[in-house]
Amino acid sequence: MFKRLKRTSTAALGLLALAPSWAQPQTAPTPCRIPGVAQEVLCGVVQRPLDATRPKGTQIDIHYAILPAVARRKREDAVFFIAGGPGQSAIDLMPHVLPLFTRLNQRRDVVFVDQRGTGRSAPLRCDPPKTNTLVGWAQSSDLAQSMQDAQDCLKRLNALPWVTHPSDIGQFTTTQAMQDLNAVREQLGARSINLVAASYGTRAALDYQRQFPQTVRRMVLDGVVPPNMALHTSSGGDAQAALDAVWTACGAEPACQKRHGDLRTTWQQLLQSLPKDQLVNDPRTGQSEVLTITRDMVLAAVRGPLYAPSLTAALPQAVQDAAAGRWEGLAALASATAPRHGPPLYTGMHLSVVCAEDVKAAKPSTAPAMSSADFGDALAQRYTAICPLWPTVDIPPAFYQLKPSRVPVLLLSGGVDPVTPPRHAKQVAQALGNKVTQVVVPQASHGLMGLPCVPDLVFRYLDTPDNQTPQVDGTCLQSLPRPLSFSFPGGATP
Fold first, then answer.
1. Which pTM does this prediction carry?
2. What is the CB neighbour count within 10 angstroms for residue 248?
3. Measured between alpha carbons, how far is 260 from 264 in angstroms, rounded to an integer?
4. Residue 374 belongs to what domain range?
5. What is the pLDDT of residue 135?
6. What's the number of domains the chain is made of?
7. Which side of the chain, N or C, has fewer Cβ within a 10 Å radius?
8. At 451, which CATH number?
9. Comparing C-alpha atoms, which of 38, 43, 116 is closest to residue 83?
C-alpha cells in the first residue's frame, strides 16, 4: 500500500484519471502530464500480446511514464518502480512516491510501468459498491457478498472490447507482466536496469530477475513476497504476530497499561461476545445504524491498522471502547483503511494473480508456520470460495524456484509487518545467496521506503559503482520507536 502534489510533499492525494486506449501504435515516449505531478514527464506505450503463447493474437497496450533524469549526463541504468497489491497501478502511485526517488532522479530516469490489468494497461477494475461507512464495513467482511461482487465484476470485465473468451481474464499473471516490463526496457534501449519494488512488486521483481537475469543491475525489495508465499494461508499467522506485538507493547508502556489493563483478556472477551447487534454511529456522518457485528468484521477492522504504526497506536483504545459497547473507534479505523480510499486496487487483476499463483498452484513455503489463533483461516476461506469462479492460467513450475543472484539485492523488512514480516525475506535471502543484504527495522510495519533515511540508504546502494560492493548502514533505523498508544475524546476507561 504514497502521496504528493508538490515534489517536497507527501500529503496531498492525486489520482490518475485518464481514459484507457486500445491498440495504439507503438511510439517513442512523448511529453505528458500526470495529475498530481508538478513537472512534465514522458509517457509511452508498448503493444503486447494478451496471451504470450499467441503472439499474433489479441494485443493490449502497456502504458508507462518516465521521470527523466535532471542531469544532462545521466546514468544509463534507469530505475524501474514495481507497485504492490497485487493490483496497484505504478502510475497511480507516481505522485505519491516521487519524493522517495528525488536523489536517484538526479542522474537516473525513473520509470513507472502500469502492470497489465492496472491503470491504463487493460485495467481490470471492480469498483466497490457505493455504500456508507458502516454498510461498507459489514459488506467487506461478508463472504456471500464478496462472491456476488466477484461474479458481477467478472460479468462486466467479460464485456471489455479486447476480451474474446472468458479465459482472457486469466492472462494477467506476474510472469506475463514481467515480459511486458522487459518489452518497455527494450523500447527504451536500456541494457540494464535497477528494480525498486514494494510488497507484491517484490515477487514480480524476483520473477523479472528469473526471466531476464542479464538485464538486472541491482534490486531493492521492500516488504518481501517470495514466489511460494501463499497469501491466503500465510496472512493469518503474520497478522496474528503483529497483533500480539500490539498487546505486548501496550503492556510494556506504563500509560497504556494504566489506561487499558490486561488488554489481551479484553480482546478475547470481545471476540467471544460476537456476533451481537449493536447501535453504531457512523464516524463520518454521525448517523446511527444497527449492525450485526461479527468476528470477521472486527478482525478486518483490526487487520488494516496493523499496516501503519500511526494507526496501530489507536487500537488499544478502540478495542477497549468496543468491549464497552462503543464501536465508533473500530468503525473509523475500518473506514480509514478501506480500499475505496486512496489509489484504487484493480481487484480483477488482483484475483487473476492470487487465484493462479497463490491458490491454484502455489508451492509450500519453507518459512516456519505461524499460529493464527484469532484470525484463523477466514482469508483462506474467502479466496478458496471466490477463486473457482475466476478464470486462471497455469503457472510455470520455474516461477516458484529462486536461484542465486548474480547481482546485489537489498531486502527491507518491518519487524511488525502483518503481511510480509522478516521471515519471508529470510527465506529469499537464503535462496539468493551471498550477494543479498537484509535490513530489518524492529518497530516498523509494511513498507519502509517512506521512513527517515531509507531513501538515502537506497540511493547510496544503487549509486555505488558496479566494481564496488554496496555498503548498507541501517543504524539510523534500528532505534526507530514504536508510536505510543493514544486515547481519543469520549473513549472508555477501565
1. 0.91
2. 13
3. 10
4. 1-494
5. 76
6. 1
7. C
8. 3.40.50.1820
9. 116
